[in-house]
Every structure is written in structure tokens, then in C-alpha cells.
Design a protein that fits this description.
There is one protein chain. The protein is mainly alpha-helical. It is built from five helices and three strands. It folds into two domains: about 90 residues, no CATH class; about 35 residues, no CATH class. A three-stranded antiparallel beta sheet has the order 1-2-3. A hairpin with a 4-residue loop joins strand 1 and strand 2. The longest helix has 13 residues.
Length: about 120
């Protein structure tokens, strides 16, 4: 689920905002930024590294502060995502889907990955 949501964000990032001005572009010549850098920065900015699980006056939830409309767009784009909006609060589910695909949260093969994530988050 998160991969589709992230893809939606990345694909729309090149479009100008409502003012018609393009979004700022980071100087790639100075640094090479990865998706990991993006996710880490979003995690920090959106939820203070998971400390805020509900924001925008109750309109956004989870570590990446996903609005219901955002989730709905992703589910409409890829029906295999399924689940419910409240699943965006579940860090374990997001990590296991990232590792094992749309149904990764149901696969025992992703439990080892989840344990690595927990270990990293508790450092």
C-alpha cells in the first residue's frame, strides 16, 4: 500500500502547485538523494518520527500523516491494496507490505524483516 501511495506522491511532485510556480528542486549535483532519504525526512517532518499519530485536526493518521482521500486514491489505483484507512496507523503492516508486496502483512516471510525494523527503531 505504501509503495503505491509513495508512487502517487513522486509522480505528482513534478507538477506546479496551484500558484503555477514549479516546486523547488534540490541540487542533485551537490548531493545524491535516495528514496530512503525522502522517507526518513517525511517520517521526521510528518510525525516527529512516529510521535504524532494523528494530525491536521484529525484528518491525517499514521507515521506519514496520510489523509483518507490520499489512501482512497491509492486504493482506487490498485484494488489489491484493500484493507481500511485505519491501517495507515499500523507501522508493522506498512513495513511488511513494503517488504512483501500488497499482501506482505499476511506473509510469515515478512516477519524477519519486521524484526529488523523493530531493532532499528529501538536503537
Amino acid at each position: 500500500m505504501f509503495a503505491v501511495i509513495l508512487a502517487t506522491v513522486i509522480c505528482s511532485a513534478a507538477h506546479p502547485d496551484q500558484t503555477g510556480k514549479p516546486y523547488p528542486v534540490l541540487p542533485l549535483s551537490a548531493h545524491f538523494y535516495t528514496v530512503d532519504n525522502l522517507l526518513d525526512a517525511m517520517y521526521t517532518v510528518e510525525s516527529n518520527r512516529g510521535k504524532i499519530t494523528v494530525g491536521d485536526d484529525g484528518k491525517a493518521i499514521g507515521p506519514y500523516q496520510i489523509w483518507r482521500e490520499y489512501w482512497h486514491d491509492a486504493v482506487e489505483f490498485d484494488k489489491t491494496i484493500g484493507g481500511k484507512y485505519e491501517d495507515c496507523m499500523n507501522i508493522e503492516q506498512l513495513a511488511r507490505i513494503h517488504n512483501g508486496g500488497p499482501q506482505g502483512h499476511t506473509r510469515t516471510a515478512t516477519l524477519k524483516y519486521w524484526k529488523k525494523i523493530v531493532k532499528e527503531m529501538t536503537k
